[in-house]
């Protein structure tokens, strides 16, 4: 496993801590607007992902790995379809743990 450039688990509220850094976030896709996809993060806040989505149609939930442009926007490198349903509460708790007292357990 390559650990030279890890992607931190984040929700929309945590993006401002990682401007210019690589992150991973799950969001519910709301709409596609040209070169951007607008969605709702697991903490129920809006998030914008720039960059072309993959050629396959996006499912209701996607994970995006990319570089944070600002506190509301990620520049996508990798898109992963997560299907039509996900436990957003559990994923959001994972984000909180990965950025809190248990940060040392995550890359």
Automatic annotation (TrEMBL):
Q: Tell me the superkingdom of the source.
A: Eukaryota
Protein family membership = Belongs to the replication factor A protein 3 family.
Q: What is this protein called?
A: Replication factor A protein 3
Gene Ontology biological process terms in this record: DNA recombination; DNA repair; DNA replication
Gene Ontology MF terms: DNA binding
Q: What is the lineage of its organism?
A: Eukaryota, Viridiplantae, Streptophyta, Embryophyta, Tracheophyta
Q: Where in the cell is it found?
A: Nucleus
CDD domains the record matches: RPA3
Which species is listed as the source?
Crotalaria pallida
An example Pfam family from this entry, by short name, is Rep_fac-A_3
């Amino acid at each position: 496993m390559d650990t030279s450039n890890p992607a931190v688990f984040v929700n929309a509220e945590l993006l401002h801590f990682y401007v210019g850094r690589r992150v991973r976030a799950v969001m519910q896709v709301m709409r596609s607007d040209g070169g951007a996809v607008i969605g709702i993060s697991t903490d129920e806040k809006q998030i914008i992902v720039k960059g072309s989505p993959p050629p396959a149609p996006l499912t209701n939930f996607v994970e995006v790995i990319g570089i944070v442009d600002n506190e509301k926007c990620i520049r996508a490198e990798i898109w992963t379809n997560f299907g039509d349903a996900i436990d957003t509460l559990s994923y959001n708790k994972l984000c909180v743990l990965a950025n809190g007292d248990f940060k040392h357990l995550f890359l």
